[in-house]
Design a protein that fits this description.
Blueprint: H1 2-6, H2 8-16, E1 22-26, H3 39-49, E2 54-58, H4 64-71, E3 77-81, E4 101-107, H5 115-127, E5 129-140, H6 147-150, H7 161-170, E6 176-183, H8 186-201, E7 209-214
Parallel strand pairs: 1-6, 2-3, 2-4, 4-5
Antiparallel strand pairs: 5-7, 6-7
């Protein structure tokens, strides 16, 4: 994508202004326990998507988030796009979508894309948002020692939080909030103090994912 090469120093300048990410702890089954237990992850998504009348799920897979959004009490028209057409989606190619949406979610997709294509996805998300719209994008934390590569063979590149922030600002988002998400199990809760200390000494991060809320 020419944008990054033509505006590289703008990207660097944006990257240097990346705010420290907020921190939340989420449970691995947070989607399954809705609506009885909303938790930090559900609260974050519900707050971000409040008021959205239409939501596009990029990489919609089995269209699971349609039910998640309903369980969160969100009243929105759900649409999905995915290249895998074994499940029926409204769209097959995200870059061909021209309809406008109040919100777009792109959970765990960027790491599957080459850099240029990933930047095109971010720019296209900005282009098809309605005024005042919100874009939620998550990706494995590049500063976790192994989370990017060990969980999926089709991952092709990490997106460090500051670089993700710089890219999102570069494509036109005025406001970008970053969140570090730690998926907690009983064993991880017991090991957390030791793991946090060990990782910080190595200049690494114990949280597994980064979520950006963009407007």
């Amino acid at each position: 994508m020419q944008l990054l090469t033509e505006r590289y120093w703008d990207f660097v300048a944006f990257k240097r202004t990346a705010p420290p990410p907020a921190y939340i702890e989420i449970r691995p089954d947070w989607r399954e326990v809705l609506p009885a237990k909303v938790g930090a992850s559900g609260q974050l998504i519900r707050r971000a998507l409040a008021g959205a009348q239409s939501v596009l799920d990029v990489g919609g897979g089995k269209r699971y988030y349609a039910q998640v959004f309903r369980n969160l009490g969100l009243q929105c028209r759900y649409a999905s796009v995915d290249t895998d057409q074994t499940v029926q989606h409204e769209y097959a190619n995200f870059l061909d979508v021209s309809d406008k949406f109040d919100a777009i979610v792109m959970f765990e997709v960027l790491e599957h894309l080459p850099l240029d294509l990933g930047l095109e996805f971010l720019a296209h998300a900005r282009a098809i948002l309605n005024p005042g719209g919100v874009f939620l994008v998550s990706t494995p934390n590049a500063h976790h020692p192994n989370h990017v590569w060990r969980i999926e063979v089709t991952h092709v590149r990490p997106w460090p939080a500051a670089d993700l922030y710089g890219a999102l600002r570069l494509v036109g988002f005025d406001s970008v909030e970053l969140v570090r998400q730690y998926c907690v199990t009983r064993r991880r809760r017991l090991m957390r103090p030791l793991v946090k200390t060990l990782y910080s000494v190595m200049e690494l991060d114990h949280t597994q994912t980064i979520l950006a809320v963009c407007r």
